[in-house]
Amino acid sequence: MSTRSVSVHEAKTQLSRLLQQVISGETIVISRSGRPVARLVPIEPPATARVPGSDDVRLHADFDDLPPTLRRAFGLRGPKRRKAP
Q1: Number of domain units in the chain
Q2: Domain span at residue 26?
Q3: Could you tell me the mean pLDDT of each successive run of 10 residues in the chain, 85 residues long?
Q4: In a domain, 18, yes or no
């Protein structure tokens, strides 16, 4: 992957061409008055494709229970009672 530096003016006038170079794997550094201010880099694809429902999620038995201080803060009365399974 190579890096190239361009001025803000060149970046504004040549954005489409610069984006094509970024798509090809090049990194573009945009400079103002000779000082780097931004970097155009290709976006890396996700490491693995996400599949809905494929994760193993486990919830603790008391997941829905609120501590007494929060129950009072929300105006809830008494401890939450769980129904027997």
Answers
A1: 1
A2: 3-40
A3: 91 96 95 96 83 82 82 79 59
A4: yes
